[in-house]
Design brief:
By secondary structure, the protein is of the alpha+beta class. It has one domain: Alpha-Beta Plaits, CATH 3.30.70. A three-stranded antiparallel beta sheet has the order 1-3-2. The relative contact order is 0.30.
């Protein structure tokens, strides 16, 4: 069974964001993870935050324990 984390953020420079993803891939792979879905969003109908979101993506992991060990690297609390 795999575990997936959904992420939302504001991308203001697509080129720099792609560089981030390219550099993040080897780190993610060391945890057995991968990027899953990746969407650009042009209209947010409901949000739990005041932050602007124009990109939504998922990160997939082989287990919850591995996912939980990766998230502190991103400074994200589950």
């Amino acid at each position: 069974m795999s575990f997936e984390r959904i992420m939302g953020l504001e991308v203001i420079n697509d080129e720099v964001y792609q560089q981030y993803r390219d550099h993040m891939m080897p780190i993610l792979h060391t945890f057995g993870g991968s990027f899953g879905y990746d969407f650009t969003v042009n209209k947010v109908l409901k949000s739990k935050t005041e932050e602007v979101i124009n990109r939504v993506f998922t990160i997939d992991f082989p287990s919850k324990e591995i996912m939980d060990s990766f998230l502190p690297i991103l400074r994200i609390s589950p």
